[in-house]
Design the sequence.
């Protein structure tokens, strides 16, 4: 059962979402996702290549001069929403939302001409590495360093798709401040170690660089600006993904409430269950409305608005948290089992709450952008 959305996409984006949903239903269902839990990549490269060849997803937001389709990042929003509904990761976040965006924001035409065509056609995947231990979310948290010989030394952690990416973009310090550097996955001195994470559908890795040859991307000292801009785009992508996952939880809960009988009637007829499902719907549609406004600003200005983006990200992450937990509660005992999909969405909800930094930092940034910092509320 599918609960109708209050917000609708354009005709073209609706068709894109419908096509992608049909593709994922056929090629990335839950059974196939579970079969990939123990693999290094966590997703099928063949399916990703097929997704690139048939629908052109990795090429959507890539400029035509770099072999892309020349659309905007806003056209990726329904893609991320449908991927969230199916808990499909592919190389969407690591390659499409993070690495591709970072390359485009760098303004480095020579690097873009070299790397983006392969990414657009699905032949090359990439990852963006910026987090280090101890984890900090400001520029002082960047300790990895590139020396005058352009060799990189340091450790990055929680790198999405870090085990499988062909190219790793690394945020590191240099003599000019913080820069963005490209490293090949087979470079000498690079050690990749898989990390155990809550979300079984999204793989992360710890990368250790020991005098690894690196190539500067963009201007010297411009890495922090590129990273901050990239994370705003990624926040919109994760917001859409979270809303898609939340919708899946809502649909599953409503369907189950209609077929599960207790005391001779569907449990959905009981007021407590009705209220829980209604609360799920309100959370999803409220978040969807906020995201819609943020995407409208992106289309109008050509860049994410930080305030609208933070609002959309927090609303979507909260909506998924509410829906993932409520879905388990509506299902009762079966919702806690390994065999049921409910725990997979709950794991995704927990993961996205910290993937781009803890929620408290996003709320703090939101209050500052809204001019509420230091006021009595």
Sequence:
């Amino acid at each position: 059962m599918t609960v109708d959305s209050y917000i609708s996409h354009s005709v073209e984006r609706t068709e894109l979402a419908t096509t992608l949903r049909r593709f994922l239903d056929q090629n990335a269902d839950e059974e196939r996702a579970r079969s990939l839990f123990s693999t290094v990549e966590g997703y099928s490269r063949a399916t990703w290549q097929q997704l690139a060849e048939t629908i052109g997803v990795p090429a959507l937001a890539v400029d035509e001069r770099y072999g892309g389709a020349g659309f905007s990042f806003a056209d990726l929003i329904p893609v991320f929403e449908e991927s969230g509904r199916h808990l499909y990761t592919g190389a969407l976040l690591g390659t499409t939302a993070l690495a591709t965006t970072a390359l485009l924001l760098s303004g480095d035409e020579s690097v873009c001409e070299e790397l983006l065509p392969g990414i657009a056609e699905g032949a090359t995947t990439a990852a963006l590495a910026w987090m280090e231990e101890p984890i900090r979310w400001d520029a002082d948290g960047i300790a990895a360093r590139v020396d005058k010989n352009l060799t990189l030394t340091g450790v990055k952690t929680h790198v999405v798709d870090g085990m499988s990416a062909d190219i790793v973009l690394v945020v590191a310090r240099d003599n000019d401040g913080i820069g963005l550097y490209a490293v090949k996955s087979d470079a000498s001195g690079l050690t990749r170690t898989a990390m155990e994470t809550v979300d079984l559908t999204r793989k992360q890795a710890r990368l250790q660089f020991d005098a690894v040859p690196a190539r500067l991307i963009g201007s010297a000292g411009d890495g922090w600006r590129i990273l901050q801009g990239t994370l705003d785009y990624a926040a919109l992508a994760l917001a859409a993904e979270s809303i898609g996952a939340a919708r899946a939880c809502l649909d599953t809960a409503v369907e189950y409430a209609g077929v599960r009988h207790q005391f001779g009637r569907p449990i959905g007829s009981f007021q407590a269950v009705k209220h829980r499902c209604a609360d799920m719907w309100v959370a999803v549609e409220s978040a969807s409305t906020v995201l819609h406004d943020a995407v409208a600003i992106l289309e109008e200005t050509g860049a994410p608005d930080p305030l609208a983006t933070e609002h959309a990200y927090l609303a979507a992450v909260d909506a998924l948290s509410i829906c993932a937990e409520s879905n388990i509660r509506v299902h009762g005992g079966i919702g806690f089992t390994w065999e049921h999909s409910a725990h997979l969405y709950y794991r995704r909800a927990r993961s996205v709450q910290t993937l781009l930094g803890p929620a408290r930092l996003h709320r703090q940034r939101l209050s500052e952008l809204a001019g509420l910092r230091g006021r009595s509320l």
